[in-house]
Amino acid sequence: MISRDKVGVLNELTRLKTRNKCLEEKLKYYKEQQEKDQKHYEELQKYYEEQREKDQEHYNKFQKYHEKQQKESQKRYDLLQTRYNYLLNFE
């Protein structure tokens, strides 16, 4: 016959094994979640970096376009000013 002390020890061992298994499963789950989160973070980081580069390219193109428009407007203004001055002197 198994004494009560031995039964108590066996019950405690069984409880600890069950608890240990549960903790190992939780640890495995949290590690998987951490890996998923890390992968998601890296994907987001890559996406935002690509977007930043695209935005910078767009800004550079817009800036060049704006400078070109400014030069053309200045040329038109200068021509009109010259024409106006010529007409003033002609009269």
Would you write up a description of this structure?
With 91 residues, this protein is mainly α. It has 1 helix and no strands. The termini are far apart. The model has no long low-confidence stretch (mean pLDDT 94).
Order of helices and strands: H
Number of DSSP-assigned strands: 0
Determine the fraction of residues in helical runs and give it as a percent range: over 70%
User: Rg, please?
Assistant: 39 Å
Give a quick summary of the entry.
With 91 residues, the protein is mainly alpha-helical.
Can you tag this structure with a few keywords?
0% strand; 1 helix; 91 residues; coiled coil; mainly alpha; rod-shaped; 96% helix
How do the helices and strands line up, and which of them pair or pack?
Elements: H1 4-90
